[in-house]
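Lab notebook, bench 4. We co-purified these components, and the gel suggests they stay together. Before we commit to crystallization screens, I want a quick structural picture of the whole thing.
Request: model the full complex, all chains together.
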Amino acid sequence: MLLLNLDRNADEPLFSQIITQLKKMIQKGVLVSGEELPSSRALAAHLGVNRTTIYRAYEELWAQGYIDSHTGARSVVRNRFSPPEEVEGQSHATVDWSIQRNEGCNRGLSRLKSQEIVNDAASKYNFLPLAPDPDFMPVQAFRKSLNFVLNREGNTLLGYGDPHGNLSLREFIASQMRQHCMTISVDEILLTNGSQGSLDLLLRLFIEPGDTIVVEAPTYSAAIPLFEAYGARLVSIGVEPDGMNLDRLEAVLKTDKPKLVYSMPNFQNPTGITTCQAHRERLLSLCADHKVALVEDGFEEDMKYFGKAVLPVKSMDRQGIVFYLGTFSKILFPGLRVGWIAASIAAIDDLTALKKISSISSNSLNEAALAHFCGQGHYERHVKRAHRIYRRRMQAALKALREYLPAEYGAVREPRGGYTIWIELKGCNLDEGGIIEALSEAGVSVTPGRISFVETQESASFRLSISMLEAVEITEGIRIIGNTLRDLAIKHRPPAALNAAPNSGKPDD
Amino acid sequence: MLLLNLDRNADEPLFSQIITQLKKMIQKGVLVSGEELPSSRALAAHLGVNRTTIYRAYEELWAQGYIDSHTGARSVVRNRFSPPEEVEGQSHATVDWSIQRNEGCNRGLSRLKSQEIVNDAASKYNFLPLAPDPDFMPVQAFRKSLNFVLNREGNTLLGYGDPHGNLSLREFIASQMRQHCMTISVDEILLTNGSQGSLDLLLRLFIEPGDTIVVEAPTYSAAIPLFEAYGARLVSIGVEPDGMNLDRLEAVLKTDKPKLVYSMPNFQNPTGITTCQAHRERLLSLCADHKVALVEDGFEEDMKYFGKAVLPVKSMDRQGIVFYLGTFSKILFPGLRVGWIAASIAAIDDLTALKKISSISSNSLNEAALAHFCGQGHYERHVKRAHRIYRRRMQAALKALREYLPAEYGAVREPRGGYTIWIELKGCNLDEGGIIEALSEAGVSVTPGRISFVETQESASFRLSISMLEAVEITEGIRIIGNTLRDLAIKHRPPAALNAAPNSGKPDD
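Here is the predicted assembly.
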């Protein structure tokens, strides 16, 4: 009979002591493969324990693969599989899967890595985050909406939902879009996992590795690795004071046959540029003429503070050329991940099927709560409040820039809305990395321009987002930026320039 | 001066009347491109309205592209872009984007279409949905957790979150996995948008169009279009009473060099089969020997009702061969879309970066609420309750099948847990579609077997899910299934057989 020592005073239950000891005996070869164990009845009697204790131990040993057992027969020690690490003196390294990575994925991952920036949370003047200020989020109103819908239909909302997305929320979105002169039915709207989710679905629909996508230079930095992960070839077209160079686009449409053109007509990220009506009309005409899908990213459509509204390209689209992307993330709750695509019904049907294929359904609960929240008028109220808050911040930033930014870099283009201001240091011989570092040392965090370019950029540049700072902080932060740039310029002035400076005016000749 | 007729008693505001009339004049060519409009001051005086009314109308006309305006100069009628539909007598059809679809996407979409089944909501005995019964969801406990976390940190939770996923929830998951003998750290867990989201990330990482994935036949139906949308070539290996045929897998690993092997060791969907320890060991060995990633879908790990637990393959994995998928969707709230991948740290790092690339962050609020819910012990309590409920339903189903299913089809394999039972009508000459239709007419909805096969299947088959029906409904539904099958068999018996029947026994020779 087996030699087991049970300690009835130990904390470890008896069945567990039996397991531990039998396992050791098997591991050490005291019990060998094929050997029969005593019947549970016999072992129970021998040890003076209840028979179910033995049952339980044998079951567990079976589950862990130490013994085989068949009804009516005695349990038998198994010829056990040895996971590599259990072989002493031999170490089995973890498999390196990176060599098996998909090619596009490799590109996307290394792009993402190249975009990494130091996000110093301790930075006093943080101009990095392009997201609404959490201090002004209407959390309690949203919490009430969540409770309302959970009490009304929690069981349904916590089940699988319709991949098309909550109908009431699509109705609200359609009514919002009508305010921007886009006549869109609920069937032409698909709710997505935020704007990134919208882009992702469009790429699934259109892009094969090697296909071309036209982007602006600079463009939304987070779109670049996503496009590249799909194996897309990116052709970037410079953004000029009135938007993407359309002559160049026309040429590219002819030569490169792109699958998509990706553009942000309002408060472009990162430049803050808003294109005019004429630019939008020509952009649409060009895409229509070449039957190329135009992705209009209206990520901050509602965030206009100054001057006149320009209508979205989508409002002029009668042929379903435009895939319009909207989102709640830049004005309300980024964490909810609710965005949408507006496009022709046939395209929305395809995209809905793709969403079903890749994620079964969206988050019904969040969508329903958001629909209730909007239906109660909270969205409009919040937008008005947000306008007041961010207009003040934007005004403070623009005033400070006029006052403190060294004049040699020229005037800053003043955005009509949104959160971002683009500083391009034209004709400056300073290194962008050096500028970012010096600013960081002075307590100011800004987004380096380079991450928004697919290829190389012409001048050092950086982006300021005014969304997270109070007006006084913005003013002080920009004052520091101005001083830092001035100090850097003096430090890096070429020796010739330094010598020449006192004799400014005519040389001696 | 312009001839405008303003009606001061109309509901339409004055500025809007001005816009409407000016637009008409431009559209009709009364005002032509390049023509100057009166200054706002002059027009205001002429019409006897406030100057801001004219301002507002001009701004809107500018926004809609009817006029150009520059500071200090008079507004000018624009050479307006005509959206195609506005040209009378000419209709411009919506662009058909389907011809530009990605090749894999085409395959995925047509597979999805081929899987469409009639989901008759009015069906009295609905054995279709593989999801927890909404009547037993602990909605109120979850609602409390939501309120708790929103009150504690709503501002943060509604902002962008960590793509890696909520730490407390990962800690809870790690502790759950330890109960299944998987020793996993929080850094080896990535939270995803449900199991479908997990699969999607794995495909992004590994699959190029043309790569091979090994699946079971039958397999999880919703995985098929997803795999195909990535352009994968699927090799399916038959599931036998003890699981996927591993001799065949060994051969395929050698000849087809797959990138992934996808398997559900517990309560396989749709067959309900649970593999034994020895099968799991060999499966792991084979994948390790060929350095092929093994995707272990543990979608119902916690749902064992009968007999002994078998340890997950992941519990034996020392080399990071296994990518283990877990989910809350089959036991708690499918609508929250929270699942996870457990894999080696390096692989999780890559997958986290891919998640960031494709969706920025996960839903922080839902994850935090779920973490709080689990931390309060609600998960364990709910699992216990779910076991009682579904065990009773499964027992009722198995009893009814023994009683009512025609004996000629052999005994049904009895699952040890989960929700699904697989009925394979071996040697039956009935058409699967005909069976499904006849059942549907009798008020019973079942999932046709064909949607779970990549290629053709051997016999007519269908899946029953017992999750949504009460025990008495299950019994009655299965009684109807038995009767329907019997009736069909009689109706479709070949004439020869009908003639032969009375003379059963020895033929006349």
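Residues 381-500 of chain B form a domain with the Aspartate Aminotransferase, domain 1 fold (CATH 3.90.1150.10). Worth comparing against the SEC data before the next meeting. Chain B touches chain A through 109 residues (CB under 8 Å).
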